[in-house]
Design goal:
heterodimer; A: alpha+beta; about 15% strand; B: four-stranded mixed beta sheet; two-stranded parallel ribbon; globular
């Protein structure tokens, strides 16, 4: 046996497995990846800087919503919750319920997008098309509730911008019922179809120990069995009243991540149904007075994991600091660890299973 | 509620080492807050698994020319946020190179002293 030759193979910055710009440089020994380097800053837009220099604090919710098309609601909600904690006044229970409703609908369509890409990377184009088509049921609901399919400016400081009608509630119940039956079919496919189950088992695995070491979050961590979910570690939103249940896996491979996401969709559907059945009466928007003075740190569970906003103000219209820690950004070191030891041929599928958002990461 | 603990550049690594238990604490991120033209507050932020809003923050006020020790040996995931504050604030962090968001030879520090 001679010395093994190391071959450097790039993945990205543009790659067919992921539409967003990210670059990984793999050092491979034959097929096996032994070292990884990453470049994630292709779409940096200076949003943190803009939030403290160009926009007053009450306009920032609509700025941070532009960080990401998929979790716009979580960004604006996380920021507004941080501001609300520094202002006097209380957001009504009805507004909190409506906020959870949109966050969970957002989680459903984001997880469906990830699952469709995972199917596509397994060579299962038909499944990709089917899930993307079914995702329209959620997008329709988001449009009816907020006015927009994706980039909705639904949350404002003090509550939400639009009330919900009985017709919309009826549509929510109808569409959620359809999605639920579709997800049951997906679970069958992702569990029993060779392309989507056996092919992905033991591929791209993150162990529980590694999840702790690399501070993994979101479905990536829960698939490895790490009991962490911001929905159970904060009390800004009444998740305990709407039927939240943590979904865990054990193996931490692509298959586990798929199953955790599928189960989270079912739980989100259940929560949305409970919300519309038990929606409290009251106003949707409370006028909060004053300007943020002090510092606040708020975390919310975005579809990809923990999102954190730290803000600091001195009672002026412009804030001193807006720090945004996004889920994919925090998971990059864990992603790199998972790649090590994997076959290069599996890298696109592993990457898709992380559900990375480079728009959030580079902000 | 944030439990803020002041530390120093000499003791921050040891303080975090004594505090951090990987199966108990979750490292959120490394943060920088500009206090004045020359001073930045660097914050190492942690939460506790399974506890509601239990946030612990170690912080040091550093001058622009001071050298910040790395915590990557204790917290491997800190490497990415260390690189971020090098880019954004122009600070000097052990083992962390510029070039995460900006060019590697960029003179800019968007959230730092020069403000560009």
């Amino acid at each position: 046996m001679g010395n093994k030759k190391i071959i450097n193979i790039p993945l990205g910055s543009q790659h067919i497995s992921l539409l967003e710009p990210v670059k990984f440089k793999f050092a491979c020994e034959n097929e096996k990846i032994i070292e990884v380097d990453s470049d994630v800053g292709f779409v940096h837009r200076g949003i943190e800087k803009a939030c403290t220099t160009k926009f007053k604090f009450d306009a920032v919710p609509y700025v941070v919503a532009r960080i990401c098309g998929l979790c716009a609601i979580t960004h604006s909600l996380c920021y507004t919750t941080a501001v609300e904690s520094l202002l006097e006044g209380e957001v009504t229970q009805k507004a909190k319920y409506l906020r959870i409703l949109l966050v969970e609908l957002d989680r459903i369509h984001s997880h469906m997008l990830c699952l469709s890409h995972t199917a596509e990377n397994a060579g299962f184009e038909a499944m990709f098309m089917q899930i993307m088509g079914d995702r329209e049921y959620v997008m329709d609901l988001q449009e009816k509730i907020s006015g927009n399919r994706i980039q909705f400016d639904y949350v404002s400081i003090g509550g939400v911008n639009r009330d919900i009608t009985t017709d919309i509630i009826k549509d929510i119940k109808t569409n959620l019922k359809i999605i639920k039956s579709k997800v049951d079919e997906y679970i069958d496919e992702f569990t029993n179809n060779w392309s989507l189950s056996l092919k992905f088992q033991d591929i791209g695995a993150l162990s529980l120990d590694e999840a702790y070491d690399y501070n993994a979050i979101g479905p990536l961590a829960r698939a490895a069995g790490l009991k962490t979910d911001v929905r159970s570690e904060t009390n800004y939103l009444p998740y305990d009243e709407v039927g939240y249940k943590m979904q865990l896996g054990t193996v931490g491979d692509i298959h586990s991540r798929n199953i955790v996401r599928l189960n989270e969709i079912l739980n989100s559907i259940e929560m949305c149904e409970n919300i519309v059945d038990g929606l409290p009466q009251g106003d949707i928007l409370t006028k909060l007075r004053g300007k943020p003075n002090g510092e606040a740190l708020v975390r919310l569970e975005a579809p990809r994991g923990e999102l954190m906003y730290y803000i600091k103000g001195e009672g002026k219209p412009l804030l001193n600091r807006v720090r945004i820690k996004t889920p994919t950004f925090a998971c990059i070191p864990a992603f790199m660890e998972v790649f090590k030891g994997s076959n290069y041929a599996d890298a696109p599928a592993i990457l898709a299973s992380f559900d990375p958002c480079m728009s959030c990461t580079a902000k | 509620m944030i439990n803020k603990i002041e530390t120093s550049l000499k003791t921050v690594v040891e303080d975090i080492k004594n505090f951090y238990r990987k199966e108990q604490h979750h490292f959120l991120t490394l943060n920088g807050v500009k206090l004045d033209d020359e001073t930045t507050q660097v914050q190492w932020i942690f939460s506790t698994y399974g506890e509601v809003d239990d946030i612990t923050m170690f912080y040091v006020d550093v001058k622009q020319y001071e050298f910040i020790p790395s915590v990557v040996e204790i917290l491997p995931s800190a490497i990415i946020s260390q690189r971020e504050i090098v880019d954004m604030f122009g600070l000097d962090v052990e083992g962390s190179t510029k070039g995460l968001y900006l060019d590697e030879d960029s003179q800019q520090m968007p959230l730092g002293s020069c403000g560009i």
